[in-house]
Design goal:
single chain; alpha+beta; 6 helices; 16 strands; 24% strand; LigD_pol_dom; Bifunctional non-homologous end joining protein LigD; NHEJ_LigD; MtLigD_Pol-like
């Protein structure tokens, strides 16, 4: 098994030629190359947070599983944080704090990275607000863009600056930096805003969880703010039929979108985009922009 050295850490890599995405012929080696290429942008969004992985050891058409606890054989140099679950049980999870850890995880076929809206050092303290826009049957990500613009205007009235990214799947994620907030408080606020939009735009928006009611509307999933929930991290690859990624967007792109294809980015197209556009989510990392939730 080949061994590579990343920032002084020795990592065994294997099966780099294995095709993970048969539809495009994309290999495991290309997955590792992608994560190395975007690591500088990605790491600030996952560092210091417990990471959950979606693993596909034989590619996206094979077995997949969601893993929270550290994989067997986790190296001693990988940071592992312990936090209490709602049941009171203590659980360990990996933190992807640096490039070696990211490469080690990618080699284990950890295709997707998911994080909560809190840091390991302060569980239950929300430093991010998230609104997950999911198009129901008959709607697309373009309709999510319409809802995103409405939400941006609504949140601005409360002094909250929001950024946007594709989910890497069907919808959009809106994110804002918070201070002095709790996960429960963020969830209550997000639910209230979602209900307001549903009342104002009942033919376009739904805030209720019932799947049967989502046809023809965009679901605003406010529950992602729960301390128990996780959201696909910025720049993560998704275990979809093609290697799509969760890509930051500009508000100009959201306003101008006419077809879903305009908002699809892959592990091939994202690194050049990042080089030219920069990190469009950067305001999320600026503590000066962190907002207080209205009381």
């Amino acid at each position: 098994m080949p061994i590579t050295e990343v920032e002084g850490r020795r990592i065994k890599v294997s099966h780099l030629e294995r095709v993970f995405w048969p539809e495009t012929g994309t290999t495991k080696g290309e997955l590792l190359h992608y994560y190395a290429s975007v690591a500088e942008a990605l790491l600030p969004y996952v560092s210091g947070r417990p990471v959950s992985f979606v693993r596909t050891p034989d590619g996206v058409d094979g077995q997949r599983f969601f893993q929270k606890r550290p994989p067997a054989g986790t190296p001693a140099w990988v940071t592992v944080a312990e936090h209490a679950r709602s049941s009171g049980e203590l659980m360990e999870q990996v933190q992807v704090d640096d490039l070696p850890t990211l490469m080690w995880a990618a080699n284990l076929a950890c295709v997707e990275l998911h994080t909560p809206q809190w840091r390991s050092a302060e569980p239950q303290v929300a430093d991010r607000l998230v609104l997950d826009l999911d198009p129901g049957p008959g709607r697309t990500v373009v309709d999510c863009c319409r809802v995103a613009l409405l939400l941006r205007e609504r949140l601005a009235r409360d002094g909250i600056e929001v950024c946007a990214k594709t989910s890497g799947s069907k919808g959009l994620h809106l994110l804002a930096a918070l201070r002095e907030a709790t996960s429960a408080g963020a969830a209550r606020y997000a639910k209230r805003v979602a209900q307001e939009l549903e009342a104002a735009h009942p033919d376009l928006v739904i805030s209720r969880m019932t799947r049967a009611d989502r046809a023809g509307r965009v679901f605003i999933d406010w529950s992602q703010n729960s301390a128990k929930k996780t959201t696909a991290a910025p720049y993560t690859v998704r275990a979809r039929p093609t290697p799509t990624v969760s890509a930051p967007l500009s508000w100009a792109e959201i306003a101008a979108a006419h077809t879903p294809a305009e908002l699809v980015f892959t592990l091939d197209s994202l690194p050049p985009r990042l080089s030219t556009e920069g990190d469009l989510l950067a305001p999320l990392l600026d503590p000066v922009r962190a907002a207080l939730l209205p009381r």
